[in-house]
Design goal:
By secondary structure, the protein is mainly beta. It contains two helices and eleven strands.
Length: 150
């Protein structure tokens, strides 16, 4: 498969970052699945998408375990890539939505391979000792394509 789009290729293969606020996927509200623009692997669902105000499409969870690979870069940032083809997607940050702002049913579907970040809730035990924030997958829209649910 692959893509012939020059911007997508620059993002996926060379690790470029598209300019903020330029991706139509940043504004997309439709239900569906976000796929890797190179290999078409499902990476994120619209249920995990939210408006982070960053200028890039942002997600607080992946669609399934081990669809996205993470690697710490020389500058401390965490790069996220498609686990299937290695295409650069963007970066993961510690400032995703708080657990309390999300539906419990959605939190129950977070894949085990997603990073545990934020700060541990103090004084809580068991299920309540989860981290306070979810990750923010800040993804280049040029590295994604959307499959809309009809």
């Amino acid at each position: 498969m692959g893509t012939w789009n020059p911007l997508s290729l620059a993002v996926l293969k060379l690790g470029f970052t598209e300019p903020a606020w330029t991706s139509p996927l940043n504004y997309k509200k439709a239900e569906g699945t976000y796929l890797c623009a190179n290999c078409r692997t499902p990476l994120f669902s619209s249920t995990g998408k939210y408006d982070s105000g960053s200028g890039w499409p942002s997600f607080w969870k992946t669609i399934e375990s081990n669809r996205v690979s993470l690697k710490r870069e020389f500058d401390g940032r965490i790069e996220c890539t498609c686990a299937n083809c290695g295409g650069h997607l963007g970066h993961v940050f510690r400032d995703g939505p708080t657990r309390g702002s999300l539906e419990a049913t959605e939190l129950a579907t977070v894949p085990e391979s997603d990073p545990q970040i934020g700060y541990k809730v103090q004084g809580k035990e068991g299920e309540n000792s989860k981290y306070s924030r979810m990750p923010r997958y800040c993804v280049n829209g040029a590295g994604l394509m959307m499959s809309v649910v009809l």
